């Protein structure tokens, strides 16, 4: 296997490792992939500088070499907060109502992709395999090709691909996808997102699509596009369960929930995660089954995310109001139904919390995959497993049909399934979990990396030209 050059917006620089599991699956997954394969991980340092220098900061720790650049304040504003997270993110999560189309955002996005290409170029050696990640860097492959890079270059999208009718509202949509077709291999989380992409290529670009072999051909260049559902680093995650931190976290939650069943949600504070809608479902549960208030304790861990963006500030305020209303209406001097926490925890602590919680509530309105659902299952006690309540709109639902699948927009459906989970017999919990754990254990992140890299290296010829 050739050396891997991984490129993503955010890089889990060594000092940041072990931070919140809910901060997004990408960083953890790439860390595991690089540890296994060796190579370099290139991206933004997360720091701002007055003037872009292109200076690369190289660090090596725990078998992973990271190379990062700083960006200018305007880059962060227009590329990261702007085009990536105020244009592409909402649009790709079907939130056209929140999507902003600003000219400067598009310019910032182009500029930063240029900066990435220019900076990473000297690090790429002729035999390397290059793997670009996520919506921040969709045109990067083309930028590298225009600088003469002939290596195999793959791209993986960690978020959904929207239906064509939504996607065409993006100005210059054709330019973006034409640029993507300079990759040799494009990976999606599920067949649903893959099919939307292929549909777009056929309908809007007039590309020839071979649906059997998943090849898109345009202007004489061929790109393979396939689904590769991402998984958790199963062995590493399960080993966390043996740590003192995990055991302490487990005890803390068991002891403090006393006779109540703990139900947990762990999400970045993002509107795609459906947190206010989740609170509506919990409120409906308490309204419908008032005598069960004493039976349930809900813990929502929600580390703030992308805090400079207005839509994120609004969702936080809305969530705080709803949580406050439910707690105000349903609390007693010795009972508070919801514990709402704005901070992240280490993997080990999350393992302990997941294991102590007998219900995992994962109800995004739209999600590329959702690794919290898989982590929750991985952390369960085989002799007394908890129940996963999962949104049918998470990519993970396609692999995890033995969970209780819900419509996150329906408070009644969420409430009903919380009750089913609370009252589920041990035999049924075990039967469901025994099915779920097979997918979580076997379709893990190492298999995901192997499958993608093997296919990338097997593509017939680099999509140069
Ligand atoms: O998985 C989607 C993703 O946007 C990743 O690319 C990212 O690292 C993660 O969510 C967290 O988002 P951010 O890097 O904006 O904090």
TrEMBL record:
SUPFAM superfamilies linked: UDP-Glycosyltransferase/glycogen phosphorylase (SSF53756)
Top-level taxon of the source organism: Bacteria
InterPro entries in the record: Glyco_trans_20
Pfam families associated with the record: Glyco_transf_20
Recorded GO MF terms: alpha,alpha-trehalose-phosphate synthase (UDP-forming) activity
Gene Ontology biological process terms in this record: trehalose biosynthetic process
Family as reported in the entry's similarity comment: Belongs to the glycosyltransferase 20 family.
PANTHER family: BCDNA.GH08860 (PTHR10788:SF106), TREHALOSE-6-PHOSPHATE SYNTHASE (PTHR10788)
Designated name of the protein: Alpha,alpha-trehalose-phosphate synthase
Taxon lineage: Bacteria, Pseudomonadati, Pseudomonadota, Alphaproteobacteria, Sphingomonadales
């Amino acid at each position: 296997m050739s050396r891997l050059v991984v490129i993503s917006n955010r890089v889990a620089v060594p000092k940041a490792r072990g931070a919140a599991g809910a901060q997004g699956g990408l960083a953890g997954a790439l860390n595991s992939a690089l540890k296994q394969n060796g190579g370099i991980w290139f991206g933004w340092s997360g720091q701002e500088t007055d003037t872009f220098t292109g200076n690369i900061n190289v660090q090596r720790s725990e078998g992973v070499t990271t190379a990062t650049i700083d960006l200018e304040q305007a880059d962060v504003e227009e590329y990261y907060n702007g085009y990536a997270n105020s244009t592409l993110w909402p649009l790709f999560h079907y939130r056209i109502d929140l999507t902003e189309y600003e000219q400067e955002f598009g310019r910032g996005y182009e500029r930063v992709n240029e900066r990435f290409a220019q900076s990473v170029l000297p690090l790429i050696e002729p035999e390397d395999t290059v793997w670009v990640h996520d919506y921040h860097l969709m045109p990067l492959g083309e930028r590298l090709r225009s600088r003469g890079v002939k290596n195999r270059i793959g791209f993986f999208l960690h978020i959904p691909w929207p239906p064509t009718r939504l996607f065409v509202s993006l100005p210059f949509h054709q330019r973006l996808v034409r640029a993507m077709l300079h990759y040799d291999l494009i990976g999606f989380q599920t067949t649903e997102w893959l099919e939307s992409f292929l549909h777009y290529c056929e309908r809007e670009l007039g590309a020839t699509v071979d649906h059997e072999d998943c090849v898109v051909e345009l202007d004489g260049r061929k790109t393979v596009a396939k689904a590769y559902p991402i998984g958790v680093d199963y062995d590493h995650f399960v080993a966390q369960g043996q740590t003192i931190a995990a055991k302490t976290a487990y005890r803390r939650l068991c002891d403090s929930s006393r006779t109540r069943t703990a139900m947990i949600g762990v999400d970045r504070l993002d509107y795609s995660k459906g947190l206010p809608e989740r609170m509506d479902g919990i409120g409906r549960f308490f309204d419908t089954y008032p005598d069960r208030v004493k039976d349930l304790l809900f813990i929502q861990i929600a580390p703030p995310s992308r805090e400079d963006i207005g839509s994120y500030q609004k969702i936080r305020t809305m969530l705080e109001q709803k949580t406050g209303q439910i707690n105000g209406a349903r609390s007693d001097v010795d009972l508070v139904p919801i514990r709402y926490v704005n901070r992240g925890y280490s993997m080990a602590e999350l393992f302990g919390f997941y294991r102590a919680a007998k219900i995992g509530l994962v109800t995004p309105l739209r999600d590329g995959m959702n690794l919290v659902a898989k982590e929750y299952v991985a952390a369960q006690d085989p002799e007394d497993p908890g129940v996963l309540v999962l949104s049918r709109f998470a990519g993970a639902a396609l692999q995890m049909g033995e969970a209780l699948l819900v419509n996150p927009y329906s408070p009644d459906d969420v409430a009903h399934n919380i009750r089913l989970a609370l009252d589920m017999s041990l035999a049924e919990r075990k039967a469901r979990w025994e099915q779920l754990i097979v997918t979580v254990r076997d379709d893990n992140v190492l298999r995901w990396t192997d499958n993608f890299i093997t296919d990338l290296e097997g593509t017939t010829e680099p999509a140069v030209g």
